[in-house]
Amino acid sequence: VVSFTAMLGAYAHHGHLDASMALFNTMPERNVVTWNTMLVAHGQSDDVDAAKSTFESMPEWNLVSWNAMLQAYAENGYLDAAHATFTAMPVHSIVSWNAMLGAYAHSGCLDAAIYTFTAMPCRDTISYNAMIAAYANEAHIQEARRIFNCMDERNLVTWLHGYVHIGCIEKAKGIFDDMPSRNIVAWTEMLRAYSEEGHLGAAKGIFDAMPQHNVVSWTAMLHTYASNGHINKAKTLFDQMPQRNTVSWTTLLQGYAQNGHVREAVTLFWRMPEMDVLSWTTMVTIFAHSGCGWIAVEFFRMMLLDGLKPSGVSILGVMVACKHVGLVREGCGYFLGMSDDHGLVPHEEHYSCLVEMLDRAGKSPSYGLFDEAATSKIS
RNA sequence: ACCUCAAGACAUA
Length: 379
Description:
Layout: H1 2-13, H2 17-26, H3 32-44, H4 48-57, H5 63-75, H6 79-88, H7 94-106, H8 110-119, H9 125-137, H10 141-150, H11 156-165, H12 169-178, H13 184-197, H14 200-209, H15 215-226, H16 231-240, H17 246-258, H18 262-271, H19 277-288, H20 293-305, H21 312-325, H22 328-341, H23 348-360, H24 372-378
Helix pairs in contact: 1-2, 1-3, 2-3, 3-4, 3-5, 4-5, 5-6, 5-7, 6-7, 7-8, 7-9, 8-9, 9-10, 9-11, 10-11, 11-12, 11-13, 12-13, 13-14, 13-15, 14-15, 15-16, 15-17, 16-17, 17-18, 17-19, 19-20, 19-21, 20-21, 21-22, 21-23, 22-23
This protein binds one RNA strand through helix 1, helix 3, helix 5, helix 7 and helix 9.
């Protein structure tokens, strides 16, 4: 069983999900680890349903199974389901807490992340890294620094992480060079740091020097090419990648969008195995600024029909589109839907876009759709 | 032999 399970995991790691499944089905004997490996494989290829049904078919669960299920939900944006799993599990390890913390950090739920971080019975460097990222994502660099400074235990990974997030790339590189052993997370972090600075050569150097790659590192490199105008290299890399997920697809999609290759973007989009809010939003924003705002509106509607919950970014995109095409009622409706239907808080961008939209149509802010509070904010 | 931290969309002139 052990060697078969190891093979199963190896197949999954290299993106051969079909091979893993075939092996799984023919295995004479399976244990919890075998099932867990399969569960994780499905989660990582963004197939939550398959992960869920694997979980439900398992003869028994251990802590790792629960954590893997929790993570599968978290990775695919099902925050509620992730939390429900967390509450349902019989015991929690630090991995469960970290997974929950990471889920909140990724979805921008800073308060929930802080709550989780303080409620945890103990914290390791992974918890600190996640918390620093949560603050940094929300542009609370001061707080990120504060956490970084108040940590009771530090190691090199956390230093690296902290420096990357506060934008001190030279210091980060210094730490990186001093690390006695670097894991793939550290390597990828360094790669992204260079990528963000536009140091394409340095990023490629890191990528080539890495002892192993996985979807995340491949995608980080893909993003480096795509966002620096090297769309052909990006495409080549994408085709070579042994494993792709929604993030990889969206990264390439964005590369096409940024380089004005609208046709290719559309074709690629419809070939995607799964779309999430970010992939849809990319399509919305591609068309939002052009004269074909109605196409953007169509994409937005299709996203809703797909059952996805729009983000503030996607709403802004569709509002910009409405503004350009003069769909005032429609645009106001999306704005109102933010708080009424989706539990989102409109930001300044949404208000100013709304004002421009009304202004263009010669309507006053007291158009009749808004209550006093909104009207006063608009004016 | 299996789980958590690292990768993707966004505004303004």
